[in-house]
Amino acid sequence: MRLTPCIGLLDGSERFAKLIGASIAGLLVASVGPIAALFDNAATFAVSALLTWAFVTVVPALLSRAKNDNDPPHTSYWSDLAEGFRLVSRDPLMRLIVGLVVFTNLLDAARRSTLMPLRQRSVERRGRVGCLRRKAESG
Question: Is the whole model's pTM more than 0.90, yes or no?
Answer without folding.
Answer: no
